Amino acid sequence: MWIVLIVISLTLGRGQAQGGTESEGRLFLQEYDAKAGIVYNKNVKASWNYNTNITDENLKTMTAINLEAAEFANEVARNISTRFPNWKTFTDPDIKRQFGGLVDIGFAAINDTEKFRSISTLGAELTSIYSTAEVCLPEFGKGCLSLEPGLTDLMAKSRNYQELVAVWKGWRNATGKTMRSKYTEFVNVMNEAIAFSGYNDTGEYWRSWYETPTFEEDVKNLYEQLRPLYENLHAYVRRKLMKQYGEQYFPDNGHIPAHLFGNMWSQNWLNIYDIVEPYPEATSVNVTAKMIEKGYNITHMYRVAEEFFTSLGLGPMPEGFWTKSMLEKPADRDVVCHASAWDFFDGQDFRIKQCTTLTEAQLLTVHHEMGHVIYFLEYRNQPVLYRAGANPGFHEGMADIVSLSFQTPEHLKAIGLLDEIPKDNKSDINFLLKMALDKVAFLPFGYLIDQWRWSVFNGQTTPSTYNNDWWDLRCKYQGISPPVERTEDDFDPGAKYHIPGNTPYIRYFVSFILQFQWHKALCDEIGYTGPLHRCDVYRQTAAGNLLRKMLKMGSSKPWQEAMKVITGSREMSVLPMMQYFDPLLQWLKEQNKEENIGWSSICPTIIPSPDSPGSSSSSNKTNLNAILIYYRNTWFSLLFRS
Ligand code: BJ2
Ligand code: ZN
């Protein structure tokens, strides 16, 4: 009896001195999971309410609930450090991974409630400026238009140079320009908050989600390998656009004016396919026209996407998806139209919010958003903490992988959006060029957005050079120039959703690599032996099964392991993308024989504005920097043109 008592007290004593045991840790996580599901659910609901009905009332509620969620995260992290001070010595890697996730509470770590509240409020206000902006175009016989559908449609269809300038400039005046000082404040308070979590700046925090110390270098290398593909596309498209609009509009530095690509941000060039089509006499595909001819409506678009996934054995969308999603733009209130997919963390409620219209581009976005929902569905049985992509690029890769099958002539024929599958080479080049306008044109854009933001977060880019540094990157990577003068009164980054929306962007660059790797893996899995660009995995459950193995892991393991499950390798690689586009690259090189590929690295002058709101006009040093940059650019451009 004595001996037993001594042993028990020793065990307890030792337990207390060293903190909770591993099995207590496991119980703690179970309890956490049940509570976190409720907290997350409440938080997402409040955010949904704001995003689908922008009102002050909904903003207040969302911010209050955000604060509750932050308090919960803090409490959990505190509990861990008091009850499990030795959790890092636990042997179960899964418990350690979850504890690691729980103590890394991001912005919630800040010890000042008001400052935390301001992160939430500033983010919502910036998104609201973006989402409610309008541009009035009376000089072109048009009234006031919002981005979706009005301005997007004009950018896609107008071939009037001056009208395109007006839309491009009008959008930037209505959005970025009005949010400059708020954005500066937003950056400062986020950086201040993230320091409490031990990060040097917000960019470092965002990059930590990739669990790769060499991440920045890795993406740079991937980009460099793909650069020739982009440069060849750029040179070819430049020549076609010159023919369309006239050489007088093209600067002699080899750049293309940024408003001529059929897209507000020059990120996706699909809408100018008609201008750049290689062989007009061969087959090309006009999905929008076919959708209209076939009597598609909005629900039909979502059913078509769902059917693709169910044909692989994935999905379907749960019942509530159809009743609770916002699939069309409501007429009676302001909403955030930018499309998105939502996981409500209760294992049943999954929704899409999209101001859907009847076009091919929108049909692709429907597939993209539904791809996210498929990922949500597959990992719904994981602990709440692991209900995320293996890294953010994985989520985007999953969202986009279907687009590679969906757009093949084989697939479009199978679902009645194309009459005949073309077999000739010219039609094949037409098809590949169209895919390049979507997938290759995007690469530098996907890469540069966070180059800019990382530089803002780490202080290398200050408010006095926000726009200058933005255009340096647009010029360096995309080879494009603004069609009208830009100054530091403008804030062109703010005209792109993800800047006010505060969504990291490098995920999309990563996704554009991954989706080709996975597409190849799925095509190999089903025994496909033809050219990679004509592979369609529709109705192939073997492909669905392989994909599912990766999806259902969520973020429970480092992404390299999820990658291994699907591709057999732990690395990101550009080879499948290069293989996919190789026939086009060879063709483009031939077409570009007489062209100067590339462009001058000398960028347009962005005029500094010492007293622009948001620029730190009180700092002489930054003003001096801005002036120096002005002279540097002027000098360089004089030199170049002479
Ligand atoms: C149209 C698409 C995003 C996406 C939305 C808005 C921000 C995050 C989500 C997340 C998904 C998740 C988008 C598509 C390709 C390039 C980029 C662009 N909207 N988001 N909740 N795209 O990725 O779906 O839905 O991970 O949970 O922004 O620039 O248009
Ligand atoms: Zn996405």
Structural class: mainly alpha
Mean pLDDT: 91
Biggest sheet architecture: 2 strands, antiparallel
CATH topology of the largest domain: Neurolysin, domain 3
Low-confidence stretches: 1-17, 612-642
Number of strands: 8
CATH architecture of the largest domain: Orthogonal Bundle
Which assembly state applies to the chains in this document? single chain
Domain module tally: 2
Strand order of the largest sheet: 1-2
Give the key terms:
disordered N terminus; Neurolysin, domain 3; binds zinc ion; mainly alpha; 642 residues; globular; disordered C terminus; two-stranded antiparallel ribbon; 25 helices; 8 strands; two-stranded parallel sheet; single chain; binds ligand BJ2
Mind explaining what this structure looks like?
- The protein is mostly helical and 642 residues long.
- The protein has helices at 2-18, 22-51, 56-83, 93-103, 113-132, 147-157, 161-174, 176-195, 202-208, 215-245, 273-276, 287-293, 298-311, 319-324, 360-378, 392-406, 409-414, 425-439, 442-457, 466-478, 506-525, 541-551, 559-567, 575-591, 620-641; strands at residues 134-136, 144-146, 256-257, 340-343, 350-353, 480-481, 486-487, 606-607.
- It has two domains: 2-103; 200-609, Neurolysin, domain 3.
- The chain is built from 25 helices and eight strands.
- The N and C termini lie far apart (99 Å).
- It binds ligand BJ2 and zinc ion (ZN).
- The site of ligand BJ2 has 14 residues, from β4, α15 and α16.
